[in-house]
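pinned: reference chain
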Amino acid sequence: MALRETKTQLAAVALAMALATLWLGFGLANPIASGLLVVTFYVLVFAGAHAYLALRGDGDSVPVDARWRFVGLVVFGVLAVTLGNAFARVEVAGQSLGTVAWAAVLAVFAGYWYYESRDAYRQTRPS
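pinned: its structure tokens
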């Protein structure tokens, strides 16, 4: 099982690298296209394998629900940080949007860590 996950992760990274190479060769030089490339690249690298395995229903070592939660976490984190950086000069309650985005990402990551830890503990407890 671990070998299949490793191969899937390597394929996701290779796909992201190919996408970046094609963008550099034929890409549009504008901030929106660059932002979309960065978002797609990070999501593919960090969550591409989990998304693929979750779509296949592969839950041998990691439950499918946990894979989807991780994909959602990565997508949220990448989008929040990208938008926070893109609109860093905008202020929310006296703080830059970048600071607010990072605070939201940290809070969501902490909640995710707590939820996954609790879920794993419950699965290993004897009934």
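why pinned: The first strand starts at residue 91 and ends at 92. The chain has a mean pLDDT of 87.
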